[in-house]
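Lab notebook, bench 4. Still working through the backlog of constructs that have no structural model yet. Next entry is a single chain of 286 residues. Request: give me the structure tokens for it.
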Amino acid sequence: MTLARRVAKLEADRSTTEIVLAWLTEAQAYPSLPAYVATLLDAPDEAFPLMRIGTQVKAVVRASMKGTPEEVWRAVRRSFGDACVLFDLVVRCNLEAHSLRELEGLRWALLTKWLGLLAAEAELAKRSRSGDPEHAQREATDWRTALAISLTSLYAEATARSSIEERYFAGHAVLFPDLAQELADLAARLEGLADMADVLPELRAEDGAPFALDDLQQQAHEAAPERTMELVTLARVAALDMLGERKRAEAAMERYLRTMAPLMQPTQEGGTGDGAPPEAAPSAAP
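Model written out:
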């Protein structure tokens, strides 16, 4: 067998997921999604990710199955639809993570400035032997609540993203290197504030309860399935729309909204219902 034929056989053995992972690994050689996109600005159409992925998927399906032209076409369309879902998930996870980093980065800056004000107020009250203890406690409670929201948001998104990576990408990370590092650094800074919450008198809880990161991680774990379902559903809807399946895209979104509606209803304990995303692959196939 010639080298060209061996290469062709290897290509034909690759699954849709493997084709997308090969592209993702290549793309992540660049530090960020914008840096990668910049390399495509003057590239020919066939260099664009979905064009390349589609060409490879088509070759794999045609080489690996026999049947009528109609059957082969349906198989190609089905596999390309799956590839579109995976591709959208990569882009969506990176864009959502970028937005979260921007939002929680601003919250970290606010919490840091706020901490300085609380410390100054505490020092002024100490020196003047005056102040409003109830106001100071409310401020401390609000500060701790804002920090808890920020950390829970980061933990929940990371848990949902990890679930997607394990389920659909064979455990391969979907974030580009710079963004992954920035999120890790931001989480570390926020956790540093959490450490201070139980040390500084002006930040202590009224009942003396510690700032429990384990509790926040548990809350994030419970919230993550709904977020996973949302990301996967939106990716599938986008793929269906890309394939021209507008009615099926609308039906998929309607099913998702019907599924989520009961989960958003308050329970007797005052929380929301619990749900898990479907285990099936996020196919966009007919």
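Notes after review: The chain has two domains: 3-82, 91-263. The radius of gyration is 24 Å. Flag for follow-up if needed.
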